[in-house]
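sorry for the late reply, my laptop died twice this morning and i had to redo everyting from scratch. anyway the thing you sent over, i finally got around to it. pasting the sequence first so we're on the same page, its 439 residues, then the predicted structure underneath. double check i copied it right bc i was rushing
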Amino acid sequence: MKKVYIETLGCQMNKSDSERISGILSQFGYDETTEEKEADLLIVNTCSIRQLSADKAYSLLGVWGKRKKDKPDIKIGICGCVAQQDKEKIRKRAPYVDLIFGTHNIYELPELIKKIENGEKICAITNKPVICNQNDFKIIRKDSVNAWIPIIEGCNNFCTYCVVPFTRGRERSRQPEEIIQEAKNIINEGFREITLLGQNVDSYGKDLNNPKITLANLLRDLNKLEGNFRIRFVTSYPSDITDDLINAVEECDKVCKYFHIPMQSGNSRILKEMNRHYTKQQYYETVEKIRKRFSNVAITSDFIAGFPGETEEEFQDTLNAMEELELDYSNTAAYSPRAFTKAGKMTDLFLSDEIKYERLNRLNEKNKEVCLKSNTKFIGKVLKVLVESKTLKDGKTILNSRADNNKIVHFESNKYDIGDFAEVKINLAQTWCLFGVAI
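ok and here's the structure:
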């Protein structure tokens, strides 16, 4: 067996793609390794949401290029969003790369690998996805507990700061029977959690021209499958969270009471400039509706600090929103200009790095504050958790688990193991996690 090393940058969709890449390569004589120096094939699966991630990909290619000088037989590949949008730049900057393939070309890998093994340099970047039944290809899943299922890829929203529609394309939903079959396979393999993925997961089914194919109905169908497992879905778009979706989450005992709903800004003018299709008030109403239905629900979000033209007062609205909405956690980032996007051309409105990162620091401090406040509310409550890993500390076995509502919970026990469900009474809250005792 030859060995392949895959470095994955970015979101869960990229991680899922890497699992599929690893599975496909395993059918062509490649065994995945965690050691770069052992690899006959090196692949970086890239993310272009922020410049820092793109820079990391190019840095890695530079390191691998130097290694190729000493070992010319190794092959180097790059895929993902940076590859999709930067193919010419990669050719010029890293001419030693053997394989460039885009987000739409993963299932062409069998043919692409044959070509590079024959000495060809290949650039396979298309704007039209390769249509196939993904269940025809092997998947090597990294996690022993949670399995990801992409159900929709791409996005139609064209937020002015976001490159996803240009790198992942327009929304494309998988057929429900294909998803359900993959879920059955996952359950049979012993996984305890299924996470449904999509850049805009709530849009699932809209492009299939069948009013019965929705995320809500898919959740209901998956909930009927036999087995001891639970279901999550990410990422939700605020204005696409329907009453029927909320009803489905309430009806389905296997569906986690957890919503990840990026807000991005707490100011309606900035939201309009971002081309987000909701106002601050509409986002508040959605959160209120969800909280009224579920007692222990967790709602998490994303925020951008320093969007072009954002005033100090408008940024204060974001800080206030994070607190007023009592969010359980938020991903935060300073605005990063991206190629092809409308906001990336607003150069006369760009804020200095000093202002952006000062605001990001304040946003992170507020995030810590509201996270601790959220976690403190769970002291004395009992949460059902899934054990994901365990560690030894001072001779004691500490189980690291995740609650139904996505809270991280640590507890001591010799009774449970990885993959077990347990009920834990919370007795201590810290900023990023909870501690408790199994009951």
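Residues 292 and 342 are 37 Å apart (CA to CA).
thats about all i looked at so far, will dig more tmrw
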